[in-house]
């Protein structure tokens, strides 16, 4: 695992319920990738290969549009280490959730 990303998907929506429905579809897609992920209150972190993660980030925007959002913004954080491993989600947060 040479990369991790955090994605906050912000689809345009008529109300909070619609916003949550669309974001849930994006999160369901992330879950379907089979990669290790962590859903937080503002963003979802995903671990894996850099190129695969960039494809997932791109697809998240398409998912939100197909779910009915007329537009979508996203905030993305990327950690990439081409030689070696990046810190895992578990190492970063597990001690805080026991």
TrEMBL record:
SUPFAM superfamilies according to UniProt: MTH1187/YkoF-like
InterPro entries, A to Z: MTH1187/YkoF-like, Thiamine_BP, UPF0045_domain
A family per Pfam: Thiamine_BP
Thiamine-binding protein domain span: 5-96
GO cellular component assignments: cytosol
UniProt-listed PANTHER family: UPF0045 PROTEIN ECM15
UniProt similarity note: Belongs to the UPF0045 family.
Protein name per Swiss-Prot or TrEMBL: Thiamine-binding protein domain-containing protein
Provenance organism: Anaerostipes butyraticus
